[in-house]
Write a structure and sequence with these properties.
The structure is a homodimer. By secondary structure, chain A is an alpha/beta fold. Chain A folds into 3 domains: 127 residues, NAD(P)-binding Rossmann-like Domain (Rossmann fold); 142 residues, Rossmann fold (3-Layer(aba) Sandwich); 188 residues, Succinyl-CoA synthetase domains (Rossmann fold, 3-Layer(aba) Sandwich). Chain A has 17 helices and 18 strands. A 6-stranded mixed β-sheet of chain A has the order 8-10-9-11-12-13, with helices on both faces. In chain A, α10 crosses α17, α13 packs parallel to α15 and α15 packs parallel to α16.
Chain lengths: 477, 477
């Protein structure tokens, strides 16, 4: 599998000069992504594509490529794999669709047989490609080039890999490896999980699953892997309507959801309900220590957010604990007289300066909390009093850069608190901008230091609950 | 209440020259928002604030202001309201906190009594202010200036009004009126709902509720209003933890959630679980006709999204219908041979040009569907084949503007379809950018024509379910 992710050379079979074709677009992405190895486009017409000499057949390539990307029509795929194997190629990605997902189980079985007999591992068919950011390897359909990072994704849907990459980029984060596993004729989700379990670059794994082909191996691999790093997973085809759709998508047999649910529980897999929850959960693992239990302190600038977070926590089985006398007393010493004296701690609109951080620390260090949810950063970042201060472009840039610095400084201090007390502090807050570019700038500055800002109270509560769930698995294992 | 939202003049009691104080910031927002009427800052020190002459007392103001904003310390509020009433002022907003929410029920009762005896209606106390975009009236704490639009919001939490405004702006939409109702000593949520029911600018109402003070009036008003326009509502304090938090936030008695749930069902209120669902639902009502029933067609470019949407629909009680022979036949006539022949209709990665629209129309006009969810717009918008085409700034702008035009053109045709067949087409798709500014540009161009693009399949399914729920209420009423 190392050859798949770190090839010194790539054969690209079905390369094309037509920008409408995948044979062009995927090759372009491989090149534009900055891949440093050799590329051997293959097309019977020969010539040159995107600056690389084209070979008529795989046999004509002057060396044995480490890996092959295959984009020829479905009926030709098995033949191409046979040629690759004959050439000594040991790893391939089949982008081509039109196998088991359209009912042609025979064609798919033949493909798997040819690959195995030839000693080749295959991604796909019906794959959208793979990504290894460290090797600047992006042979995939969407023109997305996430930076290096610590999140890996394996998905039986290619488009969903696209979703994941896109959102990670938008939020300023990178990834380690992405695999669109397609129909999984040869390599299965559990094979990739096993590989990623030992990948030092990967700290959190995401998986979108429609069905499992080898249940007992999946169980074993997932259980071993979960002990090392969290696997955050969406299993679709939960309902009859979804299961039917999955069958025609990747030919997956969705199976009984109750059985899957049991498997996920026992293997420590963190199941989530949708793509937002998946991303939020991945970032929760990346950016926070695990809590020792389910007791939450909530510190909120804005009472409504505190109420929503308390509701969300309770619904997720987290305990919004009573604060002990000593914590209340500490808060009394600097909070305005009319503060709420309870959990959530309402910072009361208007608490600037050191107040919020002192209140946060009091709740973080309180012996009754296993972690804290902090809501509403904006007052602490101190946006300008008047929108008119943004009047010139230069002023705006100066004010914005200053706010970014203040924001990162605040997170630095909170990171310090997490370290000191060994508890997560999960932040749910708007960022102080209605300008998407500025918001992205702030998120990027945070992400560069592995800091995350959730937007809504329920997202922060969900992040906490997912951390707690995984911590419980690790404690039980 | 007209004087509250369309005042010809505003007294601002507790005006300040200190940019750290609400007495400065709110006044600055009132001015910066472009309010055209007269402003009378009041402060015993006199002088001038932000260019307006300051009066020592309300009595000194040379005319009777239509409305008063009150930002003085809690103990002085009742006295100020008495002065306002003596001056003939008929409407006021009390920003000041420190009343029932901190346990001082007596102070709050006194305030309500003084206002009623003086013939004044009061917003608050503990309000963050109000907004009337048509009058360019923004006397509120956060420096947010949404444009005119058709969504109104009433919230017992000020910060949540801020959340709503911020997200509407980020997504390119405006609003009609916003009210941070605070502790509701005098005017209650139901009073605002009653007013907004007849506000021609308002087409959808949002409400964040912690508790109701006059249940029977709320019930009556909500039921009558729901017949005219949808009310989308979050009721927090659902859980014990949340209810306790609500008590110390706005002194609201959250009450039994089961009772609330019954009230919401019977009054046609659309209850949602969180702020994202609230915004998604509001935009669903703004941008689509209501479906006649719960039968959904799904058209997806990307099988995984189709599976997720089918699951989400089934979980929400929507029916992912079997397509009849005639619809399958029509699709057969132009879809690639290997298409899935079922619902979801998988467009199969790579279907460019007219294909997606023809497939969509076939499913929209199919007699078995009440509406359609369309997933995955990106191929239809035809982003450039290579990221390197963006190399110069001028190229990038040209390509981006061209994509915006194509996107809006696509929506125009889908809007036409919705009109022709009287069914909603709800779009869930990434937009083709990983650049937040460009994404915001696209969303803004859509919003300007009342078009919305959801991102995730489950959001589109939720939007459909909310429309169906409201349609059922209207049919039963």
């Amino acid at each position: 599998m190392k050859l798949l992710f770190e090839p010194r050379s790539v054969a690209f079979i079905g390369a094309s000069n037509d920008p409408e074709k995948w044979g062009f677009r995927i090759l372009a992405n491989l090149i534009d992504g900055g891949y440093q190895g050799k590329i051997y486009p293959v097309n019977p017409k020969g010539g040159e594509i995107l600056g690389w000499q084209v070979y008529a057949t795989v046999a004509d390539i002057p060396e044995t490529p480490d890996m092959a990307v295959i984009v020829v029509p479905p009926q030709q795929v098995a033949g191409v794999v046979r040629e690759c194997a004959a050439k000594g190629v040991q790893a391939g990605i089949v982008i081509t669709a039109g196998f088991a997902e359209t009912g042609d189980e025979k064609l798919e079985q033949e493909l798997a047989d040819v690959a195995r007999r030839g000693g080749m591992v295959l991604v796909g068919p019906n794959s959208q490609g793979i990504v290894n950011t460290q090797a600047k390897l992006y042979p995939q359909i969407p023109p997305l080039f996430p930076q290096t990072g610590h999140i890996a994704a394996v998905s039986q849907s290619g488009a969903i890999i696209g979703n994941i990459c896109r959102h990670l980029i938008m939020r300023g984060f990178g990834c380690s490896k992405c695999i669109s596993s397609g129909n999984e004729a040869d390599l299965h989700t559990e094979d990739y999980i096993e590989y990623l379990a030992d990948d030092p670059q990967t700290r959190v794994m995401l998986s979108y699953l429609e069905g499992i082909k080898d249940g007992s191996r999946f169980f074993k691999v997932a259980r071993e892997t979960s002990k090392k790093k969290p696997i955050v997973l969406i299993k679709s085809g939960e309902t009859d309507a979804g299961a039917k759709a999955a069958k025609s998508h990747t030919s997956a047999l969705a199976g009984s959801d109750a059985v899957y649910q049991t498997v996920f529980r026992q293997t420590g897999i963190i199941r989530v309900r949708n793509l937002y929850e998946m991303l939020d959960t991945a970032l929760a693992f990346l950016c926070h220590p695990l809590p020792r239990g389910r007791r939450v302190g909530i510190v909120a600038s804005g009472g409504g957010a505190g109420v929503l977070a308390a509701d969300a926590c309770a619904k997720l089985g987290l305990e919004v604990v009573e604060l002990p006398e000593e914590t209340i007393k500490e808060l009394d010493s600097f909070m305005p007289a009319w503060w709420s004296r309870g959990n959530p701690v309402d910072l009361v609109a208007g608490t600037f300066g050191e107040g919020p951080l002192r209140a946060l620390e009091a709740v973080v260090k309180s012996p009754v909390t296993d972690g804290v949810i902090l809501l509403g950063l904006i007052p602490a970042v101190r946006p300008p009093a008047r929108v008119t201060e943004y009047s010139s472009e230069g002023d705006r840039k100066r004010i914005q850069d200053d706010m970014v610095t203040r924001l990162v400084g605040l997170y630095d201090r909170i990171a310090e608190m997490m370290k000191t007390y060994g508890k997560p502090v999960i932040i749910g807050s708007e960022l102080p901008a209605v300008n998407a570019a500025f918001t992205q700038q702030m998120n990027k500055a945070l992400a560069d230091k592995n800091y995350v800002c959730y937007t809504m109270p329920h997202e922060a509560a969900t992040a906490f609950a997912m951390l707690a769930r995984y911590a419980e698995f690790l404690n039980l294992k």
